[in-house]
Amino acid sequence: MPIDQHLLAVFTVTTIIAMITPGPDMLFVLGCGMRGGARAGLLATAGVATSEAVHIAVAAAGLAALFAAVPVAFTVVRVVGAAYLIYLGVQMLRSRKGVPGDDPLVGSGMSNRKAFISGLTTNLLNPKMVTFTIAFLPQFIDPALGNVWMQFAILGAILIALEFVVDGTVGVLAGRIGTWLRRRQTARRRIDVTTGGIFIGLGVKLAVER
């Protein structure tokens, strides 16, 4: 397998933790599921996953070519990416418990088609998602193993699969999970703090390693 097994394990665990943290994608899928039903929640997830596949392909193509042409670029991207993960962790630790008006659960019904298109476009046009993809994936790439594009493809496939499983489950169980997320602000805060600490620790660890 053209990928470091240790890095793959760390990537998988970190991705799972990041995915189960209530964020914009999860809340969007949640809102679609509550407004349009389980099918709308699944299609919204499919839209988000499709846009993420585009982000990964673009990042992989550009970064793989850059690493091949300028080897030192890998170190630069990795360090900058690690710094960005630390920044995200700090932001999570400082996040507000609840922001009025940010709840996507309010609204009328949503068609299946609209759910997919909305999930695709909102995530595809979100520059933060592109930045996160470029910062996150290279942390788990080892150019010394070769086949950088293949490593990107494997990690990207895992990321998309986990996103579909987690957010898809949220969409299907939108009613019950929606109630939980609205009422359990303390639990959401604890998840943010835990995930923020993990991102900071991961960023520091990856910045000083290799």
TrEMBL record:
<keyword id="KW-0472">Membrane</keyword>
<feature type="transmembrane region" description="Helical">
    <location>
        <begin position="72"/>
        <end position="90"/>
    </location>
</feature>
<feature type="transmembrane region" description="Helical">
    <location>
        <begin position="149"/>
        <end position="174"/>
    </location>
</feature>
<keyword id="KW-1003">Cell membrane</keyword>
<dbReference type="InterPro" id="IPR001123">
    <property type="entry name" value="LeuE-type"/>
</dbReference>
<feature type="transmembrane region" description="Helical">
    <location>
        <begin position="6"/>
        <end position="30"/>
    </location>
</feature>
<keyword id="KW-0812">Transmembrane</keyword>
<keyword id="KW-1133">Transmembrane helix</keyword>
<dbReference type="Pfam" id="PF01810">
    <property type="entry name" value="LysE"/>
</dbReference>
<feature type="transmembrane region" description="Helical">
    <location>
        <begin position="115"/>
        <end position="137"/>
    </location>
</feature>
<protein>
    <submittedName>
        <fullName>LysE family translocator</fullName>
    </submittedName>
</protein>
